[in-house]
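Our preliminary data section would be incomplete without showing what the modeling component actually yields. Below, a chain of 211 amino acids is followed by its predicted structure, encoded as tokens that our downstream tools consume directly.
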Amino acid sequence: MFVGLDLNGHYGGGFMAQTDMQRLPYRLREPFLASTELALFRTLTDLMGKRYSVCPKVSLNDVFYIVRPNENVHFFNKFFRKHVDFLLCDRQTLVPAFGVEIVRHPSSKGEVRESDKFLEDLFTDAGLPLVHIPSNETYDPSEVITLFQLAVTKIGGTGALRVERPTDFVPNCPVCGKMMVLRFERNGSGIGKKYYGCMDSPRCAGVVPID
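Predicted structure:
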């Protein structure tokens, strides 16, 4: 029996439809953006849409990499499964130009949370301005522009650090998505041969050979 979508976007089709017990234990997270995030997304799109693509909830692991991964494995957990609220990218090349983070819990004492400090340092070292915008249900475009200008001034002439050597960059694990580390075959006919193995080995068996 045919299973399809009705005019309201609901699945139908009688006996071929799965019961709740048969379906995977995942559900659509709603809403995708909170009201404050959606309001800022619309403001950013109105202000920057002709020049930049506004990408919400971008994984840090998709934007940054770790140099000399064998030496810096402990840095991986600092940005794995974390994201920046918005990433503004050039519309033609999709090269990142700005990070935007909503400040949800500003401190009256001027204290900076460790996670916020790490994010600030991460973007600064990469030569990308990170714009901090206080959470609100509505946003004044002129105030948002001012915050962008302050972020550009703060970053100054810091240039983005890029891959300089092949060993500076390694692939993510094709099995679990975590960072991989350089390893050497210790046994068999391929002893001494290099390959990338998952940092979560032996729990994860992900391997990428090196030609």
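The radius of gyration is 22 Å. The chain has a mean pLDDT of 82. Preliminary results of this kind motivate Aim 1 of the renewal.
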